[in-house]
Amino acid sequence: MTQVTVEHMWKDFAGQVVLENVNLHVNDHEFVTIIGASGCGKTTFLKMLLGIEAPSRGSFLIDGEPLPTEPGPDRGIVFQRYSLFPHLNVLDNLLLGLELRQSRWLGRLFGGRRRRAVDKAHELLEAVGLKGAADKYPAQLSGGMQQRLSIAQSVICEPKILLLDEPFGALDPGITKDMHTLILKLWNMNKMTIFMVTHDLQESFALGTRVLVFDKVRVDPQSPEAFGATITFNIPLKGHRAPR
Amino acid sequence: MRRLINQQPGRGAALLLSLLPFILGVCAYVYYSHARQIENPEDKLLPSPTTIAATVHQYAFEEDERTGERLLWVDTQASLQRLLTALALSAAAGLMLGLAIGVLPYLRATLAPFVAALSLIPPLAMLPILFIVVGLGEAAKITLIVIGVAPLIVRDLAMRTAELPNEQIIKAQTLGASTWQLVIRVVLPQMWPRLIDALRLSLGSAWLFLIAAEAIASTEGLGYRIFLVRRYLAMDVILPYVAWITLLAFTMDWLLRVLRAKAFPWATPAG
Q: Which distant-in-sequence residues (6+ apart) come within 8 Å of A42 by Cβ?
């Protein structure tokens, strides 16, 4: 069970208010999509969940605990780009999470433990449609394949929360459709909570069980940094949907 | 006609063109050397190719009257030993310190300005200090090269490490990586090809410091020899030695390039 609770949370950077008075409650296994204009704190909000930004005021709790102050294995992340390891091939990229978890000093697995990890990785590769590409390097993959791998890489660690920062923003529309099917499939398979920042209104409604719209309610034309954005719309959509 | 920028030589033509300046250089030498020999058969400045060939044969294949050694090989071995030891030490220091400075903010705050200052000391100005402190032996020469080369490699690798996309570092943490695991599984493997690049770029200065050290205090070595025979205007020794040094340096550069391409196929080639 993963509950995310945000109460009267503010975030400012040296006097520049980015988020003001954010209140939110998210239940387990929700698919939260976050939309809003550029520079209205969507990514800052995601960075807080990730643990690389801290709230300035108010509370931000995961399962009743304050946010951790650094990234950890319970919260996976897929960025728009650069989240793969260029020196590892597809299989090794996927194995990395398992190897780091099970081998504290070498970060590598050998023998039977490696075989079991490889089996698990192959299963997931098949599920995300990268079966034939196991020994390719990330640079040899198309943008869509890279994102599939990046998602699989996070999912293999079975995080409670998966954060997606405009993961399909750089992909062709046709490929984006496939990616939607994939992410819904993995979301149902792993019962995790997803937070996804997107620019695409249609995408946010097609995927989410809850759509959050970030916007500024107050604007001071004399000093635009005086007021921050907040959640102006919190739209619960009908329950968990099956992948199409 | 197509623009000049769009005209590409074929493979054979490219090879020929790349050889052309070398051939022209040799031709020019032979011509001027011949012209001077006609005027003065004793000319030492531009010895004829036959004189050079005879000297090379003497240095490479005949035993020296005084020492009973084949001088070219003795010199080459002494120089390469110094150079390679120094480069290995510099690479090790560069990799460990550079990586640590690039990864750990506390170490960066402590050491980055210090290393930057160290790298700005002219190494040759340190040479007298080295001779006084560690003596005239091998240690002084190796230390000079290390002082000249290592700080640059450290700084380069620290910068390359810091240049790794932050996304990668964060992603690794979300996969459960500790600092140590991050270093050995994510950062270090990506720094090997960068280390090779840094070594290739430092080869020139490494040779410079080697020859400077050998010129001043040594009893064998390529740099020692050319500065020794300079007294006798022995261009027939100096010229082939310079060519030999160039060839050695070129070969090392080429080997490093091949190693990078073969060992790290995922890394995009850099020149």
A: A34, A35, A36, A197, A214
Check if B44 contacts A (Cβ < 8 Å).
Answer: no
Q: CA triplet B196, B201, B206: central angle to 5 degrees? A: 105
| All domains in chain A, ordered by first residue | 1-74+161-244 (3.40.50.300), 85-158 (no CATH)
Residues in A touching B261 (Cβ below 8 Å):
none
Q: Are residues B75 and B29 in the same domain?
A: no
Contacts of A86 in chain B (CB under 8 A): 190, 266-267
Instruction: Name the pTM for this structure.
Output: 0.88
Residues B88 and B172 in one domain: yes
Asked if B175 lies within 8 A of A75 by C-beta distance, the reply is no
Q: Which of A76, A78, A73, A207 is nearest to A143 (CA)?
A: A78
What confidence tens digit (pLDDT) does each residue in A199-237 have? Answer: 888 889 989 999 999 988 888 888 877 788 888 888 888
What pLDDT digit, counting tens, does each position of B137-167 carry?
899 999 999 999 999 999 999 999 999 999 9
Q: Is B269 on the interface with A (CB under 8 A)?
A: no
Number of domains in chain B: 2
Together in a domain, B88 and B149: yes
